[in-house]
């Protein structure tokens, strides 16, 4: 008789909840400081004011989608200046490469939003349910009125934090006090409520429940970081030549196998197993191990920041190279130079950019018109953008290889008034006198200009004048 086929083994394992233990030390203090600063920046920035004059938004940082502009204190970026935003994104990428090459996943361990909000949610969890052992007991016990009450308080607090997070985000896209009033009176637009709801839900789930799963499975950076790191990168590591063999008896190394490093790890790994994809370089295991070394009278540094290139020297008992020699090396200097160069170029572009933007489109149907006196006229659609916060009357001019007359539709003096922070379109006519070289040639280069008499700001744009021979 043939035995029934066995079910294939599952390739998936149920998630084991991680309950990191509270730890104190210099790296934990640094993480608290970074969390406080980043959260303060995120929640406070939309409420900062910046006077830009009448009829202009006074929010210091504002992504004004309605008018397609981005305000950052004294800087105003228009849609056609998106290269500045692109440059900032490139700088952000190079900065991430630089810090990863020098110090491993320091971004992930200290400033990544997932890390910051997870730390905040864990802080709330400890306040309500207790430290690691108490939370483990609570997790394993069945549901009771006490457990339900603690979970309700914790989840409600998480939900409030998540709602504040989503609410703070939408304040960056409209006037914060106005939107806050509209939210309070339930008169905010549906898109605001929908955005807050989505961000509230994602923050609540990612920070409260998914936690390390986002870092391990959802985030692509752990799989990219290896290309940014080399043997000179300083990263958190276990000095096995000091710690092995583990134990407390005679002949044992410095590691007493207390598992303190494991119990504080937010991703639940054992750093003593070597470098792992799950490690976010938060350095909490360093604080935990140093505390145990102090209690047992052993020197600190069993777990610490370590470069693989120093392993041989440390095994031999000699001092490793200084931190600065690891940080300031050709690879990081190239990243820093590129990062600084792009920053200088962006700063120069912001400083040197004109307050006038000029564009022109020749009217092609027809290319030219022959008037009754024999002169030849071309028409153009001129678009003039005033980036200043007050109306400006610009004088329109033309530069050509011969004599040519300029006229602006609806204007008698060849000047146009552009409202503040707006773009104005006007039809412009160039007319070449009968018998002139411009009237008879096929296509001649000309340049249209716009000048602000008050500030002497000037913009130029090249185009083409078509004569009769253009046929």
TrEMBL record:
GO terms for cellular component: plasma membrane. Pfam families: Fer4_18, Fer4_5, FixG_C. The keyword Transmembrane helix applies. The chain crosses the membrane at residues 30-48, 82-99, 155-172, 192-210, 333-352. Residues 245-274 form the 4Fe-4S ferredoxin-type domain. One of its GO terms (molecular function) is metal ion binding. Signal peptide: none annotated. Keywords: 4Fe-4S, Electron transport, Iron, Iron-sulfur, Membrane, Metal-binding, Transmembrane, Transmembrane helix, Transport. PANTHER family: FERREDOXIN-TYPE PROTEIN NAPH (PTHR30176:SF3). This is Cytochrome c oxidase accessory protein CcoG. It comes from Paracoccus liaowanqingii.
């Amino acid at each position: 008789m043939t035995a029934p086929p066995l079910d294939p083994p599952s390739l998936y394992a149920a998630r084991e909840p991680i309950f990191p233990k509270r730890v104190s030390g210099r790296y934990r203090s640094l993480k608290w400081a970074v969390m406080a600063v980043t959260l303060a920046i995120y929640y406070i920035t939309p409420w900062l004011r910046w006077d830009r004059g009448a009829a202009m938004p006074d929010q210091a940082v504002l992504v004004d989608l309605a008018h397609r502009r981005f305000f950052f204190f004294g800087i105003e970026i228009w849609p056609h200046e998106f290269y500045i935003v692109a440059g900032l994104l490139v700088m952000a990428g190079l900065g991430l490469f630089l810090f990863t090459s020098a110090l491993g996943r320091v971004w992930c361990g200290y400033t990544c939003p997932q890390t910051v909000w997870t730390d905040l949610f864990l802080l709330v969890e400890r306040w309500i349910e207790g430290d690691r052992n108490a939370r483990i007991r609570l997790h394993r016990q069945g549901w009771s009125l006490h457990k339900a009450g603690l979970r309700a308080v914790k989840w409600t607090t998480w939900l409030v934090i998540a709602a504040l997070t989503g609410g703070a985000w939408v304040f960056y896209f409209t006037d914060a006090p106005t939107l806050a009033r509209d939210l309070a009176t339930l008169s905010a637009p549906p898109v605001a409520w929908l955005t807050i709801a989505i961000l509230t839900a994602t923050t609540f789930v990612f920070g409260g429940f998914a936690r390390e799963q986002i870092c391990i499975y959802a985030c692509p950076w752990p799989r990219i970081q290896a290309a940014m790191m080399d043997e000179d990168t300083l990263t958190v590591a276990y000095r096995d030549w000091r710690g092995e063999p583990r134990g407390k008896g005679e002949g044992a190394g410095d590691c007493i196998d207390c598992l303190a490093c494991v119990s504080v790890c937010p991703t639940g790994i054992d750093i003593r197993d070597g470098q792992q994809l799950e490690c976010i370089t938060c350095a909490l295991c360093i604080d935990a191990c140093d505390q145990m070394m102090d209690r047992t009278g052993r020197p600190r540094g069993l777990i610490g920041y370590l470069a693989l290139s120093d392993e041989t020297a440390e095994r031999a008992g000699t001092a490793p190279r200084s931190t600065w020699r690891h940080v300031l090396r050709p690879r990081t200097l190239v990243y820093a130079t590129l990062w600084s160069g792009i920053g200088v170029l962006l700063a120069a572009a912001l400083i040197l950019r004109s307050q006038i933007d000029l564009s022109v489109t020749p009217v092609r149907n027809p290319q030219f018109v022959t008037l009754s006196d024999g002169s030849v006229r071309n028409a153009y659609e001129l678009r003039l953008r005033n980036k200043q916060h007050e109306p400006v009357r610009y004088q329109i001019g033309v530069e050509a290889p011969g004599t040519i007359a300029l006229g602006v539709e609806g204007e008698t003096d060849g000047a146009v008034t552009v409202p503040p922070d707006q773009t104005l379109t006007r039809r412009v006519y160039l007319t070449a006198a009968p018998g002139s070289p411009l009237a008879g040639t096929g296509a001649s280069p000309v340049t249209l200009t716009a000048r602000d008499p008050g500030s002497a700001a000037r913009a130029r744009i090249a185009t083409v004048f078509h004569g009769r021979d253009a046929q």
